[in-house]
Amino acid sequence: MRIRPAVAVVFGVTALSVSVPPATAHAASPAASSDTTFSKVVVNGGKDIVLDLTTRKTVTLTWTATDPDGVLASWAYLWHGPNTDDADGYLPSYLSSGACTVSPTDRTTSTCKVSFVVDPARALHRNTLAGTWNVLAGAQDATDDWTEIDVAGTAQVKRSATVTVNASPEPVTKGRTITVTGKLTRANWESRTYTGYAAQPVQLQFREKGSTTYTTLKTVTSSGSGALKTTTKARTDGYFRFVFAGSGTTGPSTAAGDFVDVR
């Protein structure tokens, strides 16, 4: 926790929320106690932030700031690294304004929201940025006390993945062997390409023609290049697909079903 003295910035009533640039957020502070607390910190609706190489994504961050003296202003942003002083990434990477609303029944509580756009081509240049990010939340109360909590919440920022599938031969005689191949790749933020994702469990699933439900047949492990290969017996017409559930640094991916005509 940080408690900071007021600076020469004047905020209006609790209707305004401003995310503070890293330089301000890292300012030194005297030892003090504070009654400001932060709760209900939610990033991206509680879902992982999965990013490819170029697609911009709008992320919403919501939280509640509470102080017995009332909250004059509040801000929050994401940071990555061992601590805030040595952080190697910030989201958003620019000043972003949001809004706080005072509870009509409790003047000590403000509900806040800020939305910002993440551009992976600009903000993400190292694959090590994939994983857990922390939420810094701060507030200024009505008596001009400033408080910041370095880890008020967390969010998962992940690299997007793609998986392909091809089942052959087509058509195939019932009872014969079908070979199913594919490849699992993920966004490489350093090379700006998709590269193979090795040693990952991927499910082979099958959906019979006329059905809407896929059944898992087996789990295949991707090779060093991300390649997938397995075999199964031809029993009836239907669709084969590979499904990757995702990992701590990479989002999930499901291949479109590949139809095989069994005769």
Could you give the topology of this structure?
Layout: E1 2-4, E2 16-18, H1 22-25, E3 37-43, E4 49-51, E5 57-66, E6 71-80, E7 89-91, E8 97-102, E9 109-118, H2 120-123, E10 131-141, E11 146-159, E12 161-163, E13 166-168, E14 177-188, E15 193-196, E16 201-208, E17 215-221, E18 227-233, E19 238-244, E20 253-254, E21 258-260
Parallel strand pairs: 4-11
Antiparallel strand pairs: 1-11, 2-8, 3-5, 5-9, 6-7, 6-10, 8-9, 10-11, 12-14, 13-14, 14-15, 14-18, 16-17, 16-19, 19-20, 19-21
Summarize the structure.
With 263 residues, the chain is mainly beta. It has two helices and 21 strands.
Largest sheet: 6 strands, mixed
Q: What is the number of beta strands?
A: 21
Structural class: mainly beta
Helix content: under 10%
The overall pLDDT, averaged over residues, is 88
Q: Could you name the ranges where pLDDT drops below 50 across 5 or more consecutive residues? A: 3-32
What Rg is obtained from the alpha carbons, in whole angstroms?
25 Å
How many domain regions?
2
CATH class of the largest domain: Mainly Beta
Q: Architecture of the largest domain, CATH level 2?
A: Sandwich
Count of alpha and pi helical runs: 2
Distance between the termini: 68 Å
Could you explain the architecture of this structure?
The structure is a single chain. With 263 residues, the protein is mainly beta. The protein folds into two domains: 2-157, Sandwich (Immunoglobulin-like), CATH 2.60.40; 161-260, SOR catalytic domain (Immunoglobulin-like). Helix content is 3%, strand content 52%. It has two helices and 21 strands. It has helices spanning 22-25, 120-123, and strands at residues 2-4, 16-18, 37-43, 49-51, 57-66, 71-80, 89-91, 97-102, 109-118, 131-141, 146-159, 161-163, 166-168, 177-188, 193-196, 201-208, 215-221, 227-233, 238-244, 253-254, 258-260. Strands 1, 4, 6, 7, 10 and 11 form a six-stranded mixed sheet that branches. The chain has a five-stranded antiparallel sheet with strand order 2-8-9-5-3. Strands 12, 13, 14, 15 and 18 form a five-stranded antiparallel sheet that branches. The longest helix has 4 residues, at 22-25. The protein is elongated.
